[in-house]
Design goal:
heterodimer; A: alpha+beta; 2 domains; two-stranded antiparallel sheet; B: 224 residues; alpha+beta; Alpha-Beta Plaits
Chain lengths: 239, 224
């Protein structure tokens, strides 16, 4: 069996194009694994984005390392005619380039920032793709496994409040003690932490509240309907 | 100083650029057919441009001397296209981020153009095929939530419990997932306005929307 694999290995190594193909395929695979976990949680960047970014990073890494091989000197030395030549130059720009894409993903919503983890995930995928492109499969697979493990662990165990997500709740209501008590009770029931609030009094005893909150799970539609049925003094609720 | 390239090299430049246009066009066509922002033309131009820049970088300075680095210009393609990609991403408060896969795809197209530019045409073809297959598989299967798109539905109804039934029906038929909702009473008209942010697969045909209005008198207004 070992001989069989050895013969495959020898065959592949004869053709650089096969080696390159295996590298981008490995990058694609890593992207799929990380992307699948993100996709399952309906994040903006899913399996497609992660795969493409890892694949493109591997592709650029290969171009950077081997793309200028036709500029060989007469003796066959790689880029030796030009002392300034640097095969890592193109690859270096992946790091700063992909960060621009990441910066585009992050957006501010009031006092909270969204998309940070998505941006970091994209950056990590570029790194994994680069490792695959350079042929460092073991590093790439280890990092992929670590990222997935961290995502899963952080989601199931609430380490440092990371399982909570930011959201906005808007309420318009007639200001009665009952309504306030009901809201307070629901806040506890739904496990909502209010970070930021803007409350406007609109005259004729109506309050308008915009709350930036952290909560663990989305409030389902049926809960909203049930709550609104019970409390007619609340005019509008959006979660 | 005139640049004297051998004839074969010039032919090779043309071939590389043409292949870049072909591969960029193939990837762009797939995007264009799915009504994405960047389609055939954009991808084609990006691939051709990156191939051309690659050629300029590697062959444009034959008199540059010993300290010359042929990757100097090429490396900035990678950076430049990402700034451009960041501009493609747009956000709005209700539906989050869109255009991320498009930006990533453009980056990949740029890399494929660069690979053509440095004469790795067969490898470039394989990479194009791989990305194309990825897109086609993900378009066909449910694995990717990206086949789901985020949209906002606004309903003005008389009877709220009815909407719960409607949602169940939509869930079965279109696999929708409610992400956020809003409930507002309109006291002057005695109706309720419900707004949902949903993730759904494909489109609700106009015919169906019309049928909803026809069949159920409870719905006063609907916008999808």
């Amino acid at each position: 069996m070992a001989e069989f694999f050895q013969s495959i290995r020898d065959f592949v190594l004869q053709y650089p194009i096969l080696v390159y193909t295996i590298r981008i395929f490995a990058a694609l695979l890593c992207g799929a694994v990380v992307g699948l976990e993100r996709t399952k949680r309906s994040k903006e960047a899913g399996i497609r984005t992660h795969c493409i970014i890892a694949c493109a990073a591997a592709l650029i890494m290969i171009i950077s390392k081997y793309g200028f091989a036709d500029l060989l000197n007469e003796a066959g030395g790689f880029m030796e005619g030009t002392r300034g030549a640097d095969p890592s130059r193109i690859a270096a720009q992946i790091v700063s380039g992909i960060s621009f894409l990441g910066a585009g993903v992050i957006f501010k919503n009031g006092n909270t920032v969204k998309g940070l983890t998505t941006a970091a995930g994209i950056w990590a995928m570029a790194a994994v793709g680069m490792a695959c492109g350079a042929g460092m499969y073991n590093v790439a697979f280890l990092v992929t496994a670590l990222i997935v493990a961290v995502q899963l662990i952080m989601h199931y165990f609430n380490v440092g409040n990371d399982a909570y997500s930011n959201s906005e709740i808007r309420i318009t209501m007639v200001d009665t003690p009952e309504a306030r008590a009901a809201l307070k009770q629901k806040q506890e029931e739904w496990g909502i932490t209010i970070i930021n609030s803007r409350i406007t009094s609109c005259g004729d005893n109506t309050l308008n509240m915009i709350l930036q909150v952290r909560l663990r799970n989305r409030i389902p539609f049926s809960e909203v309907v049930k709550f609104m049925d019970e409390h007619p003094e609340i005019k509008s609720l959006s979660v | 100083m005139p640049l004297n390239y051998p004839q074969e090299l010039i032919v090779s430049f043309f071939v590389r650029i043409l292949f870049a246009a072909l591969f960029g066009g193939i990837l762009g066509a797939e995007r264009g057919l799915r009504f994405k922002e960047a389609g055939f033309r954009t991808h084609c131009v990006v691939a051709v441009t990156s191939a051309a820049m690659m050629l300029v970088s590697a062959y444009g300075f034959p008199h540059a001397g010993d300290d010359f680095d042929p990757a100097q210009i090429a490396c900035q393609i990678v950076l430049g296209i990402n700034i451009w990609g960041a501009g493609m991403i747009y956000k709005d408060e209700t539906s989050g981020i869109s255009g991320l896969s498009s930006a990533g795809g453009l980056w990949a197209t740029c890399a494929i153009g660069m690979a053509c530019g440095c004469n790795m045409i067969p490898f470039s073809a394989i990479a194009t095929a791989l990305i194309l297959i990825l897109h086609l598989i993900l378009n066909k299967t449910n694995v990717d939530q990206n086949v789901y798109s985020t949209r906002t539905v606004r309903l003005e109804v008389v009877d709220v419990p009815y909407v719960r039934r409607l949602l169940r029906y939509l869930k079965q038929d279109y696999g929708i997932k409610v992400e956020a909702c809003s409930y507002t009473r309109n006291e002057d008209r005695d109706t309720v306005t419900l707004t949902f942010r949903i993730r759904m697969k494909g489109q609700v045909p106009f015919r169906q929307v019309l049928k909803l209005i026809d069949t159920y008198g409870e719905i006063k207004e609907i916008s999808i």
